[in-house]
Amino acid sequence: MSHLDQSTSENLLLATVLPEDFARLQPDLNRVDVSRDDVLVQANAPVDYVYFPEGGVVSIVSDTPGKGRTEVGIFGKEGVSATHLLLGASDTPHESFIQVSEATALCIATEKYLAAIQQSDTLRTMLLRFVQALMIQTAQSAATNAHQRVEARLARWLLMCHDRMDGDEIPLTHDFMGMMIAAERSGVTVTLHILEGAGMIRATRGRVRILDRAKLTDLAGEGYGVPEAQYSKLVAPFGKGSGG
């Protein structure tokens, strides 16, 4: 195992915990490569390892029989997988997998992770702050999908993915964008053309390039910004608009 210290990880949660709390985790953390479609949390199954991503986008997905898959949340370098463990549950009906970009993550065996949390109230509190921000994101997604037009929904998700990427280009398939915003593939294609025509993005096969973030933010309206502000308040500045 290569030596890790708090300054060598791009994961914002690990960078923000107290040094003594990082020291509890450090001996058992290992840096691993993660790629698109890698499953970090299987639905309705025990969790062997917990992951702190250092890049990319992780999708949390609900699979409804007969209706397909719907994304209910995302996280990346600001978060940690398997948040249900922090709430006392051993499994979850939702799957989490890498959806966008290859990256690295710091992983730790579940029993070591839970042991460290049991030893430190401050570590548990910091991790639960992320859970709070993620819960707000999930609630915001439900409200947005119920009340906003598809253009605003797509603008919101593109901004959220952009926050978690180092550059302005996001590898996104039409199928994934449809799952993100609960829309048919044909609706995604039309919406991409609308955003592209307005100069907000450039869409090519399997990729979206952000051209005008300010216009996307205006289009997303109140759908974007609430979870990001909550995370910035509870944990650390996050999102390209905050400088995080």
How would you sum up this structure, described in words?
This protein has 244 residues and is α+β, with helices and mostly antiparallel strands. Helices cover 41% and strands 21% of the residues. A hairpin with a 2-residue loop joins strand 9 (201-204) and strand 10. Helix 4 runs antiparallel to helix 9, helix 5 crosses helix 7 (185-197) and helix 5 (150-163) packs across helix 8 (213-220).
Features:
about 240 residues, alpha+beta, Arc Repressor Mutant, subunit A, three-stranded antiparallel beta sheet
Q: What's the CATH topology name of the largest domain?
A: Jelly Rolls
Question: Strand count, sense and closure of the main sheet?
Answer: 4 strands, antiparallel
Order of helices and strands: HHEEEEEEEHHHEHHEEHH
Mean pLDDT: 90
Oligomer class: single chain
Query: What Rg is obtained from the alpha carbons, in whole angstroms?
Result: 18 Å
The first-level CATH class of the largest domain is given as Mainly Beta
The residue fraction in helices comes out at 40-55%
Tally the helices. Answer: 9
Number of strands: 10
Tertiary shape? globular
User: How many angstroms separate the termini?
Assistant: 29 Å
Strand proportion, as a percent range, falls in 15-25%
* Structural class assignment: alpha+beta
Low-confidence stretches: none
CATH-scheme architecture of the largest domain: Sandwich
CATH homologous superfamily heading of the largest domain: Jelly Rolls
Q: Going across the major beta sheet, what is the strand order?
A: 2-6-4-5
